[in-house]
Specification:
Helix content is 74%, strand content 0%. It is mainly alpha-helical. The chain crosses the membrane at residues 35-56, 129-151, 163-180, 186-203.
């Protein structure tokens, strides 16, 4: 059974600046698939700067956290624009879903797992891997619902935009707390929030799928 069309509802899609930037990219025939790949590039860059943080001086470490937060926002900007260029701009391709989904699935753990190593605390890496795997699980359950002929479920409390907002806030707060040695605990608590929230999200989405299937 074919999956229903799925597109995450985003308020930013209707903003004037997003529409103007999408039109600019369309006018230059920038392929949506290339924008999707750029999102993965920003995620990889964000991962790299986080992994450099533990051995950096305090001032540099704060700058690296801020750079990682910036990479997260650039990844999200690419996620916004690839769909707008493909759908509203009419530049979509038959392989668009492939380019849209695979970079997204790689980008989440790339921007979550390194924070566990950056925090420098016991169990930080393990918590980060748990949060990263749970993030992938939420996306898998959403896609599973679509494969079963249901509308894809983007509900939270820790859907992708919420995860990335939590990571961005955590990295900025960690940068501000470097001088007091609070960056590690801040990142650890951020990962704990994402892990718990992603687990709840997976449960809610699975229950919604079960209810929809039973109601058929």
């Amino acid at each position: 059974m074919p999956s229903p069309p799925a597109r995450r509802p985003l308020k930013t899609r209707d903003t004037a600046w997003a529409r103007a930037l999408a039109r600019w990219l369309v006018a230059r025939r920038v392929a949506p698939n290339h924008i999707s790949l750029a999102s993965l590039g920003f995620a990889a860059l964000g991962a790299a700067v986080m992994l450099l943080a533990p051995t950096a001086s305090s001032g540099v470490r704060a700058a690296l956290y801020l750079a990682a937060a910036g990479c997260i926002q650039l990844r999200l900007l690419c996620n916004l624009l690839d769909g707008m260029v493909a759908v509203e701009g009419g530049l979509g391709s038959r392989s668009g879903d492939l380019y849209n989904e695979i970079p997204d699935r790689l980008a989440d753990p790339l921007l979550i797992v390194p924070a566990g190593y950056a925090c420098g605390l016991a169990w930080g890496p393990e918590l980060a891997w748990t949060a990263g795997c749970l993030a992938l699980l939420t996306a898998y359950i959403r896609a599973l619902g679509g494969s079963l002929g249901l509308a894809q479920d983007f509900q939270g409390p820790m859907a992708k935009p919420h995860r990335m907002a939590a990571m961005t806030s955590g990295l900025i707060t960690a940068a501000l707390g470097v001088a007091w040695g609070l960056d590690g605990p801040v990142l650890f608590l951020t990962l704990l929030l994402i892990a718990v929230g992603a687990a709840l999200t997976a449960i809610r989405r699975a229950r919604a799928i079960r209810a929809a299937l039973e109601a058929r």
